[in-house]
Design goal:
alpha/beta, 414 residues, globular, single chain, binds 3-hydroxy-3-methylglutaryl-coenzyme A, nine-stranded mixed β-sheet, 38% helix, 13 helices, three-stranded mixed β-sheet
């Protein structure tokens, strides 16, 4: 039985900050942000948005695009590291906002950015195990990445959500059963209780990411080895490679590491290509990975959603060319857990490739650094949506320790 992603939809907040403006305010060369990290803009949430409204807006768009009745959802998995309560999961607010029926498993998954993949794999296993039930799973990855103002992590913030309908009629991506995994207890990035902003050992986190990539990819490659011709690189069998992208330069570093491991394992001694290795890797990056990170260079880190925003952005740009071809995906969550897996883009994908990302990015309002700092330090206030608001739900605030949500007026009328 084929299992995978039947439909995908994205949601990104209505505000964005230019990293050039941030560079000026922080007195660093703008090339450090745009070339050094590869980020151009980062998404910022308005006071009326939180992790729940981002998730619910993505979920609603996914169900609408798929033409699926919310009652058909038998499992709602919400991956996030921006939890709003120690007990009450983000998913149960989303369950109500989307009108999903009573007979549904709803829970939250956490392992930093890896949780989006944990949710996708859990949903796929549930579909495989529930032959004949004909119900679908809705996986939503939603996060707001926050670091301290003026910290090295500041330019790598962002926010957004991706919703994926998972079932046995995959039209977006058919998941292959094998994957390579890697886990280790490391303190590279964490957010203790009571803190809104993450703590991070930045340079160490980059090393941890690359070590986890090596661990997961090496295991996956060993599984694939019997299918490869002698000296054949696995990357030659993949039309595109997508990476968890906290900032685009990280994907470039990851691609270099993966290609090096792959070529060495294929017996194409790295030394043999050494004089041209940089050029070869740069060309391979342009061919296999650059398109996948284009959209996220305008959004920033979205933690659990990052890899799947890359998938959505890639398909919006290249669906036709990728139909019938395999892609490789690498998911990393600090702390850490990682997985390398593959999937095939089904024929006919063009008709479901619009995840809404392009339109959302065009409709955003750019804010200045003063407004960004005001929003970052104002805490959770909730409120009415700004004039140009694309979201389907609003966070009204916290009253009597309870969170309140509703619909923006224009959306209610629609
Ligand atoms: P930094 O101190 O700003 O770094 O922190 P830097 O001084 O090394 O500069 C960054 C790059 O800009 C370097 O390039 C510089 O050379 C270059 P590289 O050597 O790395 O190729 N540069 C310039 N380039 C052009 N013109 C210039 C210029 N100046 C410098 N004038 C760091 C960077 C990423 C560490 C920081 O932003 C940070 O801590 N970010 C947050 C942590 C993070 O994103 N880690 C990624 C791996 S962990 C992960 O992905 C998990 C995560 O998503 C969380 C989760 O799982 O939930 C974070």
């Amino acid at each position: 039985m084929s299992v995978g992603i039947e439909r995908i939809a994205a949601y990104v907040p209505s505000y964005a900050l230019s990293l050039r403006d941030l560079a000026v305010a922080r007195d660093v060369p703008s090339e450090k942000m745009t070339a050094g990290l590869g980020v151009h803009e980062m998404a910022i949430v308005a006071p009326c948005e939180d992790v729940v409204t981002l998730a619910a807006s993505a979920g609603l768009r996914c169900l609408r695009r798929a033409g699926v009745d919310p009652g058909e959802i038998g499992m709602l998995l919400l991956a996030t590291e921006t939890g709003v309560d120690h007990s009450k999961p983000v998913g149960i607010f989303v369950h109500e906002l989307l009108g999903i029926g009573r007979h549904c498993r709803v829970y939250e998954l956490k392992h930093a950015c890896y949780a989006g993949t944990a949710a996708l794999m859990t949903a796929a296993d549930w579909v495989r195990a529930s032959v004949g039930r004909r119900r679908k799973a809705l996986v939503i990855a939603s996060d707001i990445a926050r670091y301290e103002l003026r910290s090295p992590g500041e330019p790598t913030q962002g926010a957004g959500a991706v919703a994926m309908l998972v079932g046995n009629e995959p039209r977006v991506l058919t998941l292959e059963a094998d994957s390579g995994t890697f886990a280790a207890n490391v303190y590279d990035f964490w957010r203790p209780f009571g803190r809104r902003e993450a703590l991070v050992d930045g340079k160490f986190s980059v090393e941890c990411y690359l070590d986890a990539l090596a661990g997961a990819f090496t295991q996956y490659r060993a599984l694939e080895r019997p299918q490869l011709a002698p000296e054949e690189a696995l990357s030659d069998r993949l039309a595109r490679l997508l990476y968890h992208t906290p900032f685009p330069k990280m994907a470039a570093k990851a691609h270099r590491r993966l290609i090096e491991l792959d070529w060495r394992a294929a017996g194409q001694r790295w030394a043999k290509v050494e004089p041209t290795a940089d050029e070869s890797v740069a060309a391979s990056f342009r061919d296999l990975a650059a398109t996948g990170i284009e959209a996220v260079s305008h959004i920033g880190n979205t933690y659990t959603a990052s890899l799947y925003l890359c998938l959505a952005g890639l398909l919006e740009r290249e669906a036709r060319a990728l139909a019938g071809r395999r892609v490789g995906l690498f998911s990393y969550g600090s702390g850490c857990c990682a997985e390398f897996f593959t999937g095939t883009v089904p024929n006919g994908v063009e008709s479901v490739a619009d995840a809404g990302l392009r339109d959302l990015l065009k409709a955003r309002t750019m804010i200045d650094v003063a407004e960004y700092e005001r929003l970052m330090t104002s805490g959770e206030v909730g409120g009415e949506p700004p004039a140009a608001f694309a979201g389907d739900f609003v966070f009204r605030g916290v009253r009597n320790d309870r969170r309140e949500y509703g619909r923006p007026r224009a959306s209610m009328a629609a």
